Amino acid sequence: MNVNVPQTVPTSASVVIIGGGIMGTATAYELAKAGVEDIVLIERGELAGGSTSRAAGGLRCQFSDEANIMLGARSLEIFRRFEEQMGQNIDMVQSGYLFLLDNEADAEKMAANVELQASLGQSSRMISPAECGELNPVIRTDDLVAGAFNPFDAHCTPEAAVAGYAKNARRLGVTILRGVEVTRVIAEGDEAEPGSRRITGVETSAGPIAADTVVCAAGAWSKKIGADVGIGLPVEPLRRHIVVSEPVNFDPRRLPFTIDFSTSYYFHSEGGGLLFGAPEVEDTWGFSTQQDPAWLEVLAELMERRTPMLDDVQLRRGWAGLYEVTPDHNALIGKSSQVDGFMYATGFSGHGFLQGPAVGEIMADLYLDRTPLIDISGLSLDRFASGEVRKEMNVV
Ligand SMILES: NCCCC(=O)O
Gene3D superfamilies recorded for this chain (predicted)? Predict the structure, then answer.
């Protein structure tokens, strides 16, 4: 796609969505599907070009928090039917998700999570180290105490999902602006008088757009959007690396998305090869997505420990992207209680892509004052003021 294509920029909109990743495009599509008109989505680069296209693409319901379990499960339902309903192939591979547990403390906590997932209708189960090895023959199992597995978890290609949402949003009348930057979100009203402030529009690199509602779906770049209207969104960018391999000499598509839980080293099939991810030794906070060659040494050690059979895999190319991290590793989803018309879907802390479809539906429900299918009240920004933070344990 060429961002220099001339685009007609409207001067007003019902809703301005900031961010053309999975959250923004899913929200635009769901709002339009619900009959909302005059929606404008603004992306300063290319669609999916921020964090979504750099994500691993894992789809799972295996979380410790009920809201995350349900967001993952609902999104999986939508992703399973995506190609049929949206006319877009997303390279869905439903080979399950396998968490490898190498100590009793993690296994005990994971068993409680699995019980919660099962009580919510999910097919997750605890399995033995031997079964871990049967499901994924390229892992070392001698130091494992257990695994957690869900056969219906999956992975797919994130930018393909964004392309599908964008295509269908456009078909339903959404204006999508690429290569246009929101330079300021505007609110009017007296900051000293609670409840009097409301969104009136945005200024952009292509001119102003008047709007009563702004949705912040700007991922790692959300803090500035909130700050424009005096809202503190506690979202910090954290760099993460991924690398993909040349094709391997076995069929990788039957391997589950596998996570070595104590180290957060993970891998899954990517075409005929494999995709690998892992944290850095020291977290690198900030907006740099420059690759650090030292990370490859970290990865090599983790691979040697858990997957020595993959020693001869040839790595082909890699990249770094940004997580959008909140203090409790849970998303911020809701309508502002401070500024009327300011909505947010951000802070997904490394598990956003897999929640995108459900969040799109929820944002449409919130806009239309409908009760969402999933209770996300606990993911409101207000939890940080009230001290009701909720820590997600299954963070990778
Ligand atoms: N956060 C990237 C690894 C995939 C996952 O969290 O399931």
Answer: D-Amino Acid Oxidase, subunit A, domain 2, FAD/NAD(P)-binding domain
- Give the per-residue SS3 of 177-212: EECCCEEEEEEECCCCCCCCCEEEEEEECCEEEEEE
Cα-based distances in Å from 8 to 4, 148, 183, 271:
12, 50, 18, 38
Residues in the chain: 396
User: Residue 250 corresponds to which tokens in the numbers above?
Assistant: 């076995």
What CATH number corresponds to the domain at position 128? 3.30.9.10
**166 and 178 both lie in a single domain:** yes
CATH number at residue 27: 3.50.50.60
Number of domains in the chain: 2
Rounded to the nearest angstrom, the distance between the alpha carbon of 56 and the centre of ligand 1 is 6
Please state the atom number of ligand 1 nearest to the C-alpha of residue 395: 6
Note the pLDDT of residue 195.
80
User: 119 and 223: one domain?
Assistant: no
The Cα–Cα gap between 198 and 204 comes to 18
In terms of domains, do 315 and 332 share one? no
Asked if residue 188 and residue 118 are part of one domain, the reply reads no
Residues 198 and 246 in one domain: no
| In the predicted structure, residue 194 carries a pLDDT above the cut 90 | no
Indicate the angle between helix axes 356-367 and 66-80, nearest 10 degrees.
Answer: 100
Structure tokens at 169: 């949003």
Kindly provide the ipTM of the predicted complex, given to two decimals.
0.98
Site to probe by mutation for ligand 1, drawn from 242, 351, 354 as the one with most ligand atoms within 8 Å of Cβ, is 351
Nearest atom, ligand 1, residue 394 CA: 6
Residue among 241, 51, 273 nearest 162 (CA): 51
Instruction: Show the domain range for 49.
Output: 12-55+159-233+328-386
pTM greater than 0.95? yes
Distance CA 194, CA 173 (A): 36
Quote the tokens at residue 288.
């740099």
pLDDT averaged over every residue in the chain: 96
Residue 67 lies in a domain: no
Residues 248-297: tens digit of each pLDDT: 999 999 999 999 999 999 999 999 999 999 999 999 999 999 999 999 99
